[in-house]
Amino acid sequence: MAFPPDTSKTTKLERYNSYLRRVNSTKLLAASSKLLFRATLLAALILILFFTLSYPPLSASSHNSPYGSSHRSLLSSALYGGAGSAAVGGASWERQVRQSSTARRPGGMSVLVTGAAGFVGTHCSLALKKRGDGVLGLDNFNSYYDPSLKRARQSLLGKHGVFVVEGDINDAALLAKLFDVVPFTHVLHLAAQAGVRYAMRNPQSYVHSNVAGFVALLETAAKRADPQPSIVWASSSSVYGLNEVNPFSESHRTDRPASLYAATKKAGEEIAHVYNHIYGLSLTGLRFFTVYGPWGRPDMAYFSFTKDILQGKPITVFEAADGDREVARDFTFIDDVVNGCLGALDTAEKSTGTPGGGKKRGPAQLRVYNLGNKSPVPVSRLVAIIEGLLGIKAKKHVVRMPRNGDVPYTHANVSLAQRDFGYRPTTDLASGLRKFVKWYVEYYGIKTPASTASTTSSSAKTRKVGGGGHGIKDSTDTEDTGDSSLSSSA
């Protein structure tokens, strides 16, 4: 009788081999874990070393500030993107900021220009840089109108040595960082949400930029900056609101705004008074009257009229609701406004406050001025000039002005600015629009009937002098450098 094979020894051997495999696997896993831990620790040390080198401690002034270094957050080392931008707080970024802000002339200013990629901000930045002042720009490049135009302005500024930091005026950490890196002597505060009618669709944007943003800047200037800068900022002729006394004077009532935009600008004037009174900040407000010119804002009437006429679209022209008079504006050419801004900066006195927000040493300068052209022009005249420059007849749709915050008439009395810093506007509307239209057709690469006629009649002369037509009539004139809103916004 056969017996089954004895498998006990085989089973024991298999169990022993299985045990050895488990032991070896455990040892391998432990070794792998140690290697992974060491690699992770090494990577962490490398990252710590990298950030230590890239984001050095703030200047010594921060140690004397009531905010202290603990006030910093990760926001201050975030990437703000945009052409020419760098990591905020990095060594390369600080070099660009300091280089752009350093004056090249004896006694020159170091100016922080907010809204630097905007219309007025770009022109003022270029003018300051040209005369040898240090200029640093700040802009958030929002999409209220075509951001590509703002980027083009930023590129223009970069070519002239002006660095534009991309960031929001409400970012307290960013503002504090800028004032820690550069002891600005002046601030030209032009950043704001512009436009009258847009406030009916997006009111919060006006409170965010025009009120909260202004407070954020003043808080930093009063409590963080050392020395405290002198501040010139953009108010607006819209603050005159329902005032019917002409021409508008700085002594007239401004407590009846007709739009939320105007109300936020009026609030800015009252806020400026508070920071001047408590902290000794030197503050100058400028009430702009319908600024126009090359590199202008697409939401303004002259810009949108030009665009629509060239595209064969009808334009909407407003007439006063009461029918007693034409809608008219005190159109002010950009070069005249720039001269006014620089005059205000040049005559701004030093702030009298104590860095850190302490007791002020004495009363500080507080001013407000009109910057207009002294000669209101009916909108019908504006349209006629553009028609002549383009060689195209406009298709007009005339309607009564709706009650949406626009006022029918603006007229500036500029005698105060003339007395205090020699402000004298010299550009009439026809001359200013000629320069604007030249820029417009060149920037957008447009051929117009006027340019064709001008080129045909003067081609021999053009070849002789080696020049080219600019696309509008009177090509011998030199060029400097969303609606059909008739607002007098900045």
TrEMBL record:
Its EC number is 5.1.3.6. It is found in: Golgi apparatus, Golgi stack membrane. Residues 451-490 are annotated as: Disordered. It is a multi-pass membrane protein. The keyword Transmembrane applies. InterPro entries: Epimerase_deHydtase, NAD(P)-bd_dom_sf. The chain crosses the membrane at residues 35-55. Keywords: Isomerase, Membrane, NAD, Transmembrane, Transmembrane helix. The keyword Membrane applies. Residues 111-350 form the NAD-dependent epimerase/dehydratase domain. It catalyses: UDP-alpha-D-glucuronate = UDP-alpha-D-galacturonate. One of its GO terms (molecular function) is UDP-glucuronate 4-epimerase activity. GO terms for cellular component: Golgi cisterna membrane. SUPFAM superfamilies: NAD(P)-binding Rossmann-fold domains. Residues 451-460 have a biased composition (Low complexity). Belongs to the NAD(P)-dependent epimerase/dehydratase family. This is UDP-glucuronate 4-epimerase. It comes from Colocasia esculenta. The lineage of its organism: Eukaryota, Viridiplantae, Streptophyta, Embryophyta, Tracheophyta.
